[in-house]
Structure formats: C-alpha cells, structure tokens
Amino acid sequence: MITGELKSKVDKIWDTMWSGGVSNPLSVIEQLTYLLFIKRLDEIHTRQENKAQRFSKPIENPVFGPDQDHLRWSRFKDFAPEDMFNTVRDQVFPFIKTLGNKGEEDGEGGSTYTHHMKDALFMMPTPRVLANVVDQLDSIDMSDADTKGDLYEYMLGKIASAGQNGQFRTPRHIIKLMVDMTAPTPKDVICDPACGTAGFLVAASEYIQQHHSETIYKNDEARRRFNEGTFHGYDFDSTMLRIGSMNMLLHGVENPDISYKDSLAQADDLDEEKYSLILANPPFAGSLDYESTAKDLLQTVKTKKTELLFLALFLRLLQTGGRAAVIVPDGVLFGSSKAHKSLRKMLVEEQKLDGVISMPSGVFKPYAGVSTAILLFTKTNSGGTDNVWFYKMEADGFSLDDKRTPQPDKSDLPDLLARWQNRENEGERKRTEQSFLVPREEIAGNDYDLSINRYKEVEYEAVEYESPQVILERLAKLEEEISEGRKALEAMLR
C-alpha cells in the first residue's frame, strides 16, 4: 500500500489529468497505464543494452529498432511539449498498439495485449498536460516491483465502484490471502472467469515468481509456459481487458490469455475441465434471463442468480483435483431456494468443500457494504468432504467504515492463514473459538446451511444486578441529597 510522498505524487498526476479535461476515471487510468507501459519498455530495452555491452554481444530481441531510438521514454521525455506530443501521438502510440504482432499481416499478432490495444485511443488533451504527466511519472522511482504493483493498485482503486451487476474491485490484501491459501505452483493452469483488472492473476503470478523462481526461469520452455500458458482471464468489458492485459505486463507476465468472453452466456467445450486453480470474485446481485445463459449451466443449477451460475461454471471449468477460492455473498451460504440448497449439497456431497471464511461486511467499503464469504473447494466428482473448516474473520487490518484506515495491529489474516495451513489440527477447537471444524453429517442435517452462525456457539456471561429494593433505596437517598442541595442554594440567594 502506498502512502506519504508517493501517494501525493500519484494524486497530483491524477489531478493534472482531471484539470486538463480527462474527467472519466477509466480514461485517466487507461492513459496513465499506456505511459507506464511505454516507460517500462524503455527500462527493458536499457537492461538488454547493458547485458549486451557486458558480454560484447548484439542485443537479443530488442524492443526498439535502430531507427526507433526517439520512441524511447528516456529520449522523448526531454523533448519540447509540442514535439513530445506529436512524437507520442503519431509514433509511440501506434508502436505500442502493434507491439507483439510478430509480423502478422492482419495486425492481430500473437499477443493478447496487442489484440486489446487495437481500439485504444490517445486522449491526452494538450501538449502541456502530456509534458506535465510525463515529468511527474518520471520523478517516481519504479525500479522496485512492489512499488510498481502498489502504485498501479492504488490507481485502480480510484476507479473502483459498484456496477449494475455487482462488480467491484477486490481489495489487494484479500486477494493475497486467497492466493496464499491456494499456494499456486508453476504446474497450475490458473483462471479467473470474471477477471476485471486481473488482480487475482497478478497476485498469483507474484506468488509463483516469489516461491518458484528457479523453476520458471530454469529454461526457455518453462519461461514460455509461465508467460503464455499459466494465466487465463475472461471479461466482457473491453476497457477492463486492456487494463488487465497491461496490468499483467507491468507485473512481468508477457503474454497471458486475457480474452473477451461472457462467461455465463458462452458454453465453450475447449474450456471444460481445463484449469487446475480458479481464483475469482464474480459479479453478484445481478440476474440473467434464461435465454442468454449457457444451457449446460442451467442443467447444473436452474436459476437466474449470477453468483450461483458462476459457482456452477467453476465446477465445469475445473479439472478433477482442481481447487478454487472464490468470494460469494452471504446469501449463497444460507439461501433457502431450491437452487441454493442443491448447489450447496453438490459442493458438500459430490465435491470436497474445504473451508468457509466469513468476512466482515466492511471489507468492500466504501464501494459496497455487502456481507461476503470465501469458499474453498476441490473438484472430485466423487465426494470427499469429511470436515469443513470454518473461520470467523473479525478484522482485516483496516477500519470497517468508509474511510478504511489502515490498522495493522487489528488483522486476523496472519492467524487465518496459519490455521488454514494446519487445519488438520483444528479438530479440538471449541465452537466458541474463531475457527473450528464441522463434520459433513452435521452440515447435511442442517439442510447444508454453510453460515458460520449456524454452528458457532456464543458464550453468555451472567450479569448480576442489585435487587430492586436496594436500587430504590439508593434513588431515595439521591433524591434526598438533591433536595437538601436545592434548599441550600435557595438560602444563599435570600
């Protein structure tokens, strides 16, 4: 999370764009993302230059050709505003739109980033605004990958808002928790069918790079698989696809599969049982009509509710043995409709339901106050649920009001993760504690209700009060003292 001087610099950049006439937050983030990407390209090329000089070899896979030196950030940033504006608009921007084409005539290229960039527009209003923004971005040291990621997440946070279909951005620390709990590996094929800005995929890529760097960098094939075969994201918002693609690029994944798809409306057999890990916060509170929904999903669960349809979708997309960590509204846990009950029964009896984490309602504030939970399950198609691990999250390290002030001393996340990783030892925990195990038979006996309050026991402390007689005597004594005090005051006034 960025604070202090860096936060002020980003806010100033945002204000510069805003006052310059770019008032749509999505447009601001898009334009800033393009510039960040152009800056990163120059950093990559500089690194390649230094490597080539060190080994006295030609540059391998240079980003810029011999006649494109003026397109580099380090060159045009010193141009006069008018020259900079013309260069970026007429040459740099067309260059990044075709980057990754690899010579294909149709301009589609091999890069999903290139595909999404086809419709991108250069919207900097004036040379002065562009020059100011470039100067301000240049003053920010983004050599640190964490800083770069935090900076981008902060900017994405500025566009977060609840949409018509219940779309809102997942807080980064919740994403990280879910990724840490599922512990992705280089062998995983990871998918987010409602990826938005690709927050889950970015966090998964960071986890793999941090914990398995030797594996993904050991040879060209492993590196290629990491860049092209591991991460898959779908969305039906073209702006989000562009931002998501660039978000992945800025975090070191060169060519992820970020594609346009209405996940609930399109039945794609190629995706069936394709993925080993699903991380998602799908849109909920939305309803679809039956006609626009994939028929195989309706066969699994007949409903119009998007949160239930997405759960059915996840089961279809997962390989046998694949696992999922997904955010759902609390209604999924205890809803009484036939669709709610049948889906919960399916997770418990036909698959392996591993855990249910109840989150406080303030987690998504100020954008939404909805109560949510995290479901963790494994696809088996043969059952396997013995005990379900429940955890009641009381605090997430931030205040639960609209301000969401950091409170690092008030966070259940480290305890939650530690207990999840050792949940086989949770059997002796009492139902009055923050986490505990519940047998499958008990859940089945409660109509597959998954709300933690159904199983959690509350300890009540007996409070002893004084007898009414004693209280009345004390009141009479107080009244007597008040009366005497009033008489004394009256005597003083005579």
Structural summary, described in words:
- It is a single chain.
- The protein is α/β, with parallel strands linked by helices.
- 46% of the residues lie in helices and 13% in strands.
- It has 19 helices and eleven strands.
- The protein has two domains: 4-145, N6 adenine-specific DNA methyltransferase, N-terminal domain (Ferritin, Up-down Bundle); 160-454, 3-Layer(aba) Sandwich (Rossmann fold).
- It has a nine-stranded mixed beta sheet with strand order 3-2-1-4-5-7-6-8-11, sandwiched between helices. Strands 9-10 form a two-stranded antiparallel sheet.
Mean of pLDDT: 84
Q: What is the C-alpha radius of gyration, as a whole number of Å?
A: 28 Å
Provide the CATH superfamily of the largest domain: Vaccinia Virus protein VP39
CATH architecture type of the largest domain: 3-Layer(aba) Sandwich
CATH topology of the largest domain: Rossmann fold
Strand order of the largest sheet: 3-2-1-4-5-7-6-8-11
Distance between the termini: 69 Å
Low-confidence stretches: 102-110, 161-167
Which structural class should the secondary elements be placed in? alpha/beta
How would you summarize this macromolecular structure in one to three sentences?
46% of the residues lie in helices and 13% in strands.
